[in-house]
Amino acid sequence: MNNAKIAWITDTTASLSKEFIEQHQIHVIPLHVVINNEFYKETVDITEQEFYERMKDEEGKFQTSQTSISDFVDLYKELKENYDFGIAIHASSTLTGTYQSSVMAAEMEDFKLYAIDSQTGSFPLSFLIKKGIDLVEQGLDVNKVVTQLKGLREHTRLYLVPSNLDQLQKSGRVSGGQKILASLFNIKPILSIEEGAARIKDKVRTEKKAIAWLVNKLKEDLETKTVSKVAIVHANDLKKATELEKYIKETLPNLETEILMLITVAGVHTGVGTLGLSWVCE
Question: What average pLDDT is seen over the chain?
Answer without folding.
Answer: 90
